[in-house]
Design goal:
Layout lengths: L1 H9 L2 H6 L1 H14 L3 H9 L8 H22 L3 E2 H8 L3 H10 L3 E3 L4 E3 L27 H16 L1
Antiparallel strand pairs: 1-3, 2-3
Helix pairs in contact: 3-4, 4-5, 6-7
């Protein structure tokens, strides 16, 4: 992303103003730089891309959605359905339907989504994207975590 920022600074203003698509690509890049997931989806859908750029933007949108799903599953025990839908760039109904198909839980009374933690995601999770990532690392039992934490604290005290 740093290279993209420096490239944008080196492009002459005349070229920037002459090519609207270049400015739209930079708008998407800015949202990525800011880690503004809803803004990424909005920037991608706000522009009519040419045939050469369209597949790239679709791949970027899918990769961003995949990353968002993974981040939510790692970071949240529950999240408001509206926030989740914005984070993954889908309408609320479609986002909730998709997570239910993946084995996540949703409470319609409170409008909350409860993700599964990584390592227990179903193979059908590929409905939204294909994955070539290695299998997740198995979790460490609580006793081992406590023993490791005790070792660190003992080390720091000495």
């Amino acid at each position: 992303m740093n290279n993209a920022r420096y490239l944008w600074k080196r492009i002459p203003p005349a070229i920037k103003s002459a090519n609207a698509e270049l400015g739209a690509v930079w708008s998407v890049g800015q949202r990525i730089w800011q880690r503004d997931f809803p803004g990424i989806y909005t920037s991608i859908s706000a522009h009519q891309w040419t045939e050469t750029i369209q597949p790239i933007m679709e791949a970027l949108r899918d990769a961003t959605r995949k990353r968002a799903f993974g981040l939510v599953s790692q970071a949240y025990t529950s999240i408001v359905a509206d926030d989740f839908a914005a984070f993954v760039g889908l309408p609320v109904e479609e986002a909730v339907k998709g997570v239910l198909e993946q084995g996540w839980q949703a409470d319609f009374a409170t409008r909350m989504v409860m993700p599964k933690k990584p390592g227990v995601l179903e193979a059908s999770f590929n409905r939204f994207f294909t994955s070539s990532e290695p299998a997740p690392v198995p979790p460490i039992p609580n006793e081992q975590q406590l023993a490791r934490l005790t070792d660190y604290v003992a080390f720091l005290e000495n």
